[in-house]
Every structure is written in structure tokens, then in C-alpha cells.
Amino acid sequence: AQDELARNDKLAVLGQVAGSVGHELRNPLGVMNNAVYFLQTVLSDADETTKEYLGIIKEEIAVSDRIVGDLLDSVRIKPPHPEAVGVGDLIGHVLRKCTIPENVTIVQEIPDGLPPLKADPLQIHQVLRNLVSNALDAMPDGGTLEFRAERAVPDAIMLKVRDTGVGMTSEQLGKLFQPLFTTKARGIGLGLVVVKNLTQANGGEIEVKSEAGKGTTFFITLPCAGPQVETAGEQEA
Ligand code: ADP
Ligand code: MG
Fold first, then answer.
1. pLDDT tens digits for 208-221?
2. Which ligand sits closest to the CA of 136?
3. Smaller CB count within 10 Å for the chain: N or C?
4. Binning pLDDT at 50, 70 and 90, where does residue 227 land?
5. Backbone angles phi, psi at 43, to 5 degrees
6. pLDDT tens, 42-70?
7. Which region, left, alpha or beta, applies to residue 63 given φ > 0 means left and ψ of -120 to 50 means alpha?
8. Ligand 1-lining residues (CB < 6 angstroms)
9. Alpha helix locations (H) across 152-210?
10. DSSP assignment, residue 115?
11. Residue nearest (by alpha carbon) to ligand 1 atom 25
């Protein structure tokens, strides 16, 4: 038990360090991004090699920024501010913010009359953004990204996010929610940690089914906002 305590202390400190470092990296990355933007404008007549290098710098800044973003998201999870929010609105919002490649087909099936969720919309956006980003990574040659929602017992809604991507082996599935588990050269393995924490913070649960070579489905069950659960200010930690 003593060891466990020491370990938790270390993890808490590590989390704080990661948070501060991540935060401190945000500014220089922003400055670099502006500088590259400036150079690209000034050097618009430069030779192809120069332009290519500028493009590489810009891309690598974007990769770093994403990693720092995942890192920050994973260490600072705020208490949710739940409200009644429609599933279709949540998905629509996230899809408008994501760049969906042309070879990816979006399917969206939300039954009429589905009650709204009771969840923090910003946090559910973050959950969906992460799932979409992974699904797109899993379909480099295109495919179908499907969103479905249905009523679940007792007062819940199940959201299904399915892709027809590379899928996972059972070994990968077992490590899926472990911090820093990634199979990507440019991944950090914190996206699904954030997804799970935020889902649970909103009173929900997450499950996954996946088959290598076929695709992956994430099932997210969240409480729905029936009239009986409409008590203001109620929060689940
Ligand atoms: P990252 O995206 O930085 O690798 P994540 O926590 O988001 O970190 O995902 C961890 C790993 O889980 C990924 O590297 C990938 O191997 C696997 N994974 C997650 N989502 C999917 C998916 N939709 N299809 C296939 N593999 C996935
Ligand atoms: Mg990810």
C-alpha cells in the first residue's frame, strides 16, 4: 500500500510536470507557426525545394501541437457542466470542425424522437473529435465512418461510432486505454485515455469491438436528459 501511495504521488507529480511543459510549449509553437506563415508569404516565389522545406516545418509544427494538445487534455480534465444536448447537434458540430477526406463516406443515423443527452457538450465534442481522428487514421485508403444512436436502458443513449479501417488485434484491444499505447509513428497514445476519462466523468461507459482488417466500433453510453433527471446543478464525478 505504501508503494502504491508513492506511485500515485509520482504519477500526480508527473502529470503536473507534463501539464506545465505542455503549456510552456504552446507559445513557442504558436510563434513558430506564425513565423512559417510569414516566410511562406514572403517566399511565395522561392524554388520548390525551399517551399517543400517550409511545408515540412509547418506540418511538423502541427504534429507537435496535436501531441501537446493531447497531453494537456489528458492531464487537465475539468468537472463536467452537463446540460440537455441533442446527439445530432453534437455529431454535426464535430463533423463541421473536422476535415473529412474525400474518400471517406459519412453515414449518420439518429432516430427521430431520441431524447437529448445530459452531458457536457464541450467534453462530448472532445470525445467525438478523438474518435473521429482515430477512425480517419485507421482508414488511410478511405472507407466509411458511421454514427448511430439508440435508446438504451434505463435512461441512457448508446452512441456507436464505427469505421471500416484497419481494425485491431486482440492484443492491441487489450492495451487500448493504457496511457502512451500507440501504434502510430506520430502518436502519443493519450487520445483514448481522454475519451475514457471524459465519458466516465459524464456518467457514461465506453466499449469497443474491433476486428483486424475489418474495422472498429466504439460504443458510448451516456445518460439521457429525461424530465426526471432534469435537476439543475447535479454532477457526477
Ligand atoms: P494515438 O492516436 O496518439 O495513437 P490514441 O489513444 O488515440 O492514441 O489511440 C491509441 C491506439 O489505439 C492507436 O495508436 C491505435 O493503434 C489504436 N486505435 C484507436 N482507435 C482506433 C481505430 N478506430 N481503429 C484502429 N485502431 C485504433
Ligand atoms: Mg488518437
1. 999 999 999 999 99
2. 1
3. N
4. low
5. -100, 30
6. 999 999 999 999 999 999 999 899 888 88
7. alpha
8. 130, 134-135, 138, 163, 165-168, 172, 176, 181-184, 187-192, 216
9. 170-175, 191-201
10. P
11. 167
